[in-house]
Amino acid sequence: MKQRNILPLVGAASALCLPSIAQTQQPNIVYVIPDQLRNCSLHFWDDAPYSAYTRCAADPTITPALDAFAAQSVVLSEAHSTCPVSSPYRGMMLTGMFPERNGVTLNCMNQRPESTLSPDAVCISDVLSQAGYDCAYIGKLHADFPTRNNPQRPGTYVVDGDEVWDAYTPPERRHGFNYWYSYGTYDVHKHPHYWDTEGNRHDIDEWSPKHEVDRAIAYLDNEGGVRDASKPFFMMIAMNPPHAPYRSTEDCMEEDYALYRGKSVSELLVRPNADTTMSKARSAAYYFASVTGVDREFGRLLDALEARGLDGNTIVVFTSDHGETMCSHSLRDPKNSIYRESFNVPFLIRYPGVLQPRVDDLMLSTTDIMPTLLSLAGLGNSIPASVEGRDLAPALRTAGEGERPRSALYIRNLNGRRDSDGMVRGIFPEARGIKTGRYTMEIAIDRKRAVKLIRLFDDANDPYQLSPLDAEANRELTAGLCAELGAELKRSNDIWYRERILEELIPYGDAPQKTETPGNKQP
Ligand code: CA
Question: pTM of this prediction?
Fold first, then answer.
């Protein structure tokens, strides 16, 4: 399917798409990333021209701000989270490097000391800071090994229990972000906490996305002189909802839950692959309420940009770190699988006067985000040599031009062995997969590195992935997909390529490159 242009905007909104004097200046960048927001939860996918790209029903959500934002943006139908769990996504997005090079191979927590963002990895914020940007991080980071650290009393800690997942990030690990209002990971949505630039902790009794957008607006207004107003800014807002828990109005706003309260499970879970008998099905109303709340807060941020005259020269991205299965395929795990509900993510990007609003099936993978954003901001020459992703800015700027990847790589790592202290050492690279325009294929191995399963779908004819194809009966197709998978594993210098895993099945071509340890690759 080729790109299709959306009709020109009319009325006041059209002004957003006209080139302006401000575009001679370096653009600001705002990157909004709620956690676990699946692409099909954006309601506009039910409407033309978007619906032709997914051939699936959208969730029955109410997302007016994102529907309007989509009409001003390039909307990608085929953006994928390469390793669809929190920390590996964040490592890849920040560095443009694959997990084995940036250090974040597994979700960061206290039993996985090796999985942490390498201090030496060059992040997008390092590059932008060097290029003269003021850089702000607001919300959930979850890319560092949790450290027991009370910044007011260095060397001690005061919150028992939180160090399993949560983390304070000391200044030397902030990678160019000069404004800080963040935490590791903490799932109490109406009682979040944050550590600020100076390391002071703030405990808040408010739904976290609302609080974070308030802080973002205060940053725009430079309350307290927190930013250098002479500089362009790069602001990341990493919301935790609609991430679990989604069990009650303790997790979302009541006004949003009221929109879904009266609907039955079958009215809410409209995808025919959803198992509505799962106990989790009751969560759908709260999950969708969280999506609506995120939509409202995102809309409030867009309004704030417009009211301050900042919308014309600001690149705005709305995406997520991975999706949410929400009972599809009877899965308990909301993420970490190649099924579309988990692997496919929203990716909407608005840059008035530069990007023509449209829906596009351009394949975007997580490592492509950093180089693409730098290039769009006019910093293509500053993309570090350590970046392993592709600059897809030309394809975004002009429909049908530039590099258009044929496929998206999928990675699933599990814990490696445990040492005598119970610490996880290394990874078990359980599954690798490939998504092309038409097909999805995953290959999983057992601990002896033999094939455990080959999962194969014809997404064009089976968009809900209900009817797996038999790999043996479709040898030619499987061989073609294995060739594409081998090429991607080689391009990413993946452990499967380096250690020739299933080389009788996957053609890897020439000899592997020298093995590198996480973080040692020089920029
Ligand atoms: Ca996540």
Answer: 0.92
